[in-house]
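Repro:
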Amino acid sequence: MRVAIAGAGAVGRSIAGELLENGHEILLIDKAPTAISVERVPQAEWLLADACEITSLDEAALQRCNVVIAATGDDKVNLVVSLLAKTEYGVPRVVARVNNPKNEWLFNESWGVDVAVSTPRLMSALVEEAVSVGDLVRLLRFSHGDANLVELTLPEESALAGTQVGDVEWPEDTSLVTIIRGTRVLTPSRDDSLEPGDELLFVAAQAREEQLEDLLSVRREDATG
């Protein structure tokens, strides 16, 4: 897979390194000469150019990319790169970094963004996830379909503890995608049971989050009356 990353700072280089280890082809783009540090990610291609300029993106052959990641420290730049990647070059997947949470509402399909990643929001979510049991934590927002990746650690007293996945009447527009149990990562089947302490990851419509949290957190005595 060919991936172009706009922004060769610490964030962009870190993403590039991870993707290279997974066998992907990486192009790093930055307009600042000081950011072009080929020796730091020697396996990547490098381009000294302004990613907001059509001529630069032509040179980068953006139409050949499967994914574009707008990872600069400037939200305005990330929005412009996302829009150009999607509308001018038809890139199938556009991921954008949100630096200021106040700008998060802009990072949607109107600006060509498929997935918006807010670093401050993600860090706070990870803190919540580490200390919260029974509370729904939003980890990631998907622009299309108004859906989020959310997590909940199943509490000991949950009415669903010991229930098989296939026996649960999940809310509409929600999908259980992963169960993390200790060091194991499980792809849920109908016959898998939900156990106290399981970290459950869902893709869910935002409008269904409260209903999902209520379902998972209800206490046994509440469920039985």
